[in-house]
Amino acid sequence: MNKRGKTLSIIGAISVVVTILLFFLLTSERSTMTWAGFCSILLAEIATFGGLVFLESISTKLSLIVMSAIGGGALIAIPLISIAVSLLFMVSQSHAYKVFAAIQIVSLAILVILLIIAYQVSTSVKYTSDKLLSAEKTITRITDKLKMLADDRHNKVYSEKIKRIAEDIRYSDISTTVAADTEIETKIESLKLILLSENDQKEEKANALLDDMLLLVNRRKMEVKNTKQGGI
Predict the structure, then answer these.
(1) How far apart are CA 144 and CA 149, in angstroms?
(2) DSSP per residue over 99-166, as a string?
(3) Spatial CB neighbours of 61, under 8 Å, sequence gap ≥ 6
């Protein structure tokens, strides 16, 4: 449990203890409705702070913005409404037990539904954002490797071609990774070895690899397009 989770646990525990103390200090004649309202208030507090602590424990698996907006908002607003309803029925000493129970059940159902929706949406957003971040890191790694090769004074002969490949990749769709990305990285590593060698066929092999990379960049564009369209 992180620091925020511990803080919420402490606040929740204090809230429950204070509620119990106030209940016994401020009430003398305790009817069935009084007890029902008291129990509902305790459950609302436990649901609020318990839910918030749980959200903190799984925060790394969720989109915090979405979960805080929907889930966190629901965990605060709906229990507050439940507490307000409980206090109203307790003060008025109403005997409409069925109405009270119905309101609390509906409130609980709405809370559960909103939490389920929040969880589904936040996990989906988290997956998409993580996938995008991973793709951006991959493309950055590839273009950085190409830039280093292009800037090496020993590779002036191939510099323009390498820069062209890097630019083509940088300005393509980088929202997802595809099979061609791995092949491009493999070709870059092979190109590094060839450029460091003193082989008689160095220029021929280097140009062949660069041509292969240009083809792979074009293939990458098609793979990304197919992925977006659900073709792969």
Answers:
(1) 9
(2) HHHHHHHHHHHHHHHHHHHHHHHHHHHHHHHHHHHHHHHHHHHHHHHHHHHHH-GGGHHHHHHHHHHH
(3) 123, 126
Range of the domain at 8: 3-129
Taking only the tens place, the pLDDT of each residue in 94-127 is: 788 899 999 999 999 999 999 899 888 888 888 8
Q: How many domains does the chain have?
A: 2
Q: What is the DSSP letter of 80?
A: H
The residue with tokens 């200090």 is 25
Q: SS3 of 20, please?
A: helix
Report residue 121 as tokens: 């949406």
Q: How confident is the model at residue 232 (pLDDT cuts 50, 70, 90)?
A: very low
